[in-house]
Structures are given as C-alpha cells and as structure tokens.
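Hello,

I think I submitted the uridine-5'-diphosphate-xylopyranose job twice by accident. Can you confirm which output corresponds to this input? Input:
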Amino acid sequence: MALKITVIGTGYLGATHAAAMAEIGFEVLGLDIDPAKIEMLADGRVPMYEPGLEDLLRKHVAGIEGSTGRLRFTTSWEEAGDFGDVHFVCVNTPQKQGEYGCDMSFVDAAFGALAPHLRRPCLVVGKSTVPVGSAERLSRLLAERSPAGADVELAWNPEFLREGFAVQDTLRPDRIVVGVESERAEKVLREVYEVPVGEGAPFVVTDFPTAELVKTAANSFLATKISFINAMAEVCEAAGGDVARLAEAIGYDERIGAKFLRAGIGFGGGCLPKDIRAFMARAGELGADQALTFLREIDSINMRRRGQMVGMAREALGDGTFLGKRVAVLGAAFKPDSDDVRDSPALNVAGQIHLQGGQVTVYDPKAMDNARRVFPTLAYADSALEAVRGADVVLHLTEWREFRELDPEELGGVAGARVILDGRNALDAELWRSAGWTFRAMGRPRA
Ligand code: UDX
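Support: Only one job matched these inputs. Its output is below.
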C-alpha cells in the first residue's frame, strides 16, 4: 500500500513539499497551527509569491474542481498523527532575537505536539535547518513521548530549495540527503523519493550529524562564494578593475564554477545570513569555533556592501548629502522572483538612506505589501516609472527581469537626473549610457 504523508508546517518549505509529494502521487495531509494559512491553502491559494506553486497546489487540493484530491490540510495534530506513515517536519528555525543562535522553539513545539499522537509505526523526517546535534535529541524525545515508542523512528532530510525555484528544486533536486539510523528508515525514504532518484538525483545516505551539517555547510559555502566575489569587487573598485569580467574569467575554471559569483550588495533572505550565524554559534558550543571564524568575515563583508552602496549613492549626488534629495529604489525583495523581504539588502539600503534624510521611493514587482509592513515610513510607488519620477538618483537593488527590460529613454524622460547605480550588476551599462545616463555598477569601472 502506498505511503501516506503528512507535512507539518506549511510555510515556504512545507507548502512546496506537500504539493510536490502530491504531484509524485502520494496522499498528503498538510498541518499548520495557523488556521488562516490552512484556510487559504485548502482553498488553493498560496500565502506567498512563488512561481508555479499555486498551480501545483490547485492541481491536487481536495475540493478544487478537476484536482486529484490527493492533498488536504488540517490544524489537528490527532488527525495528522493518525494519517501519516511518514511525517515531514518543515517548520522554520529563525535567528534568535538579539543573538546568533538558532531559535528551535517551533521545531521543539512541533515534535512535542506530534509525538503523543503517534500510535503506530511511522517515520518522522526533519527537514528544517537545525544546529548539529538536534536530531539525536529529537529522536530521544520521540521515543519517550510517542505511544508507539521505539516503533517511531526519526530521519533527517535537509532541504536545499531556493525561493523563486522552489517547485522545480523540490521535484527535481540536485541531490537528496538522508541522515538515518536504520535500514528501515532508509528503505522508507528511498520509496518516498523513488521518482526523483529514478530521474537521476543522487541519494546520499549519512548519519544524523552529517545530514544536519550538509545543509549548513552548503549554505556557508554559497555565502562564502558571494562574499569572496564581493571582496574582489572592493579590490577592483580600489584598483580600477572590472569584477564582472573577473568573475567570468575565473568562473570558466570548472573547479571554481560560474554560479554565485555575481558581485553587488550581497546576500540576504531567510536562510544564508541566519544559517551562517547559527553555524558559528553552534560551533562555539561544540568548542570548534576556530574552524568557523572565517564566517564572521563572510558576514562582515556582506553587511559592509550595503553601506558601500549607500556611500556610492551619496557620492553620486555630488554634494555628499541625502538631505532634500529624491532617491528611487528599484527592488525590495531579497532576490528576484520572490516577495520575501527578510534581511533584504535592497530594503536595508533604502532604509539607511531614508534614515540619513533622503526621500526614498521604492518599487518592487511583488514585494510591496511585505516591504510596507516592515518599513512603513518609506514611500512606495506603483511602477518603476512612478518611483523614478523626479529622482536625483536611481538605485537598482533587486535584479527583476522587469528592471532589465526598462527603457532608459522613457525613464530618462521623467527622472530628475539621469543617474543610475546598479547594485546587482545586472543591467546593460552600454544601453543606459547611450541614453545619456551616468551609469555606475559595484566593482566596475566608471565609464
Ligand atoms: C538559499 C540556498 O541557495 C538554498 O539552497 C537553501 O535551501 C536556502 O538558502 P535562497 O535564500 O532562496 O536559497 O536564495 P539564493 O538564491 O541562494 O540567494 C541568496 C542571496 O544571495 C540573495 O540575496 C541573492 O541576491 C544573493 N546572491 C546570490 C548574490 O548576491 N550573488 C550571487 O551570485 C548569488
């Protein structure tokens, strides 16, 4: 009989995972403690912007016309405990307030609430990004608190999906990593992932600590790549070099690889910044802090870039002050194809300029509501053209396709001054310059 799957936590990761599991063919029950979220999902609506996710959901959510009916949602732990042969835990693990460590309260609460309802043999699979050592602790919790006791097993299966590509990354992952303590757990997970593995995804079996570490190591490596190229951008700025050509040239070396070498205002979002900090904090607890001191530098290069963008904007204004100046900011999301503004470099730069007295107007294709919520004192426009109207300087801070397709002539017609700074190295410098704009990009020659 086919396995039945529950997905605990229907945020970014959980909603995508639940829909993907239904797409593969499983009966799926999604649980969240937020009834409003469950109501939306049960209606086939997604609480965030993620390309393709709503369509996938609507294809499977029970009660929607023409759907397979394989996907349902609940707020009942009892129902979830009864339903699942495999329970994926997908709750978030944010940074702790005021410190670097990882806030495990949602994970602990989810395991604590689920365990008393596990009355038959099943596999609980952690997907959240957690400090190494958590799986071992949570496996003891399950054994102690589940009525089925030792028949409830734990596995750790980190998730590597990127926002904006969540559906594609979940259905066709680069690799599947499972931390297991028994052959039975491995067998169950091989069954769950039979389809992507059949399509060529490598299936890597490890112990608990390695599986937990794979995720934080991968994100640390990605963060390191970005901060490395941003450090090179700083040197290029000092020496008069061009970091985009440098990145292209080193990227042809397959050992280095061309991806994640785009210099600019750096990384943000709900994962990379908090994951490297939590990793440092955990290494400290384990007495291995020396191994990760370089991550402090990665973090500090990253944060410095935001200030450097502010400095570039101030300089571009000529008289060294934002007072009385209009600044148009294109982009608020931490990256394109997402409405997520968590730790967004774009919004941070906009905020800094606002706090220094500039009149900032922001436009983003999808993240306006979220941006307004976290930064209500900024001005917001309904289009790029409106944001740029009367601006003394334009900052391009999130590389949406819409911005790459802007017409410099049209924007020049409404801008106060034709000055644009590319904080993402994504615009066509020649195109803007030929329309009479002063164009500057981070880590690249002036003209
Ligand atoms: C990341 C990991 O990529 C993913 O595997 C993990 O599961 C979650 O964290 P995500 O946060 O969605 O995914 O974004 P990602 O595409 O990795 O970008 C992170 C940040 O780095 C963005 O702010 C992006 O703008 C920035 N970035 C990325 C650069 O500044 N330069 C680059 O070359 C690439």
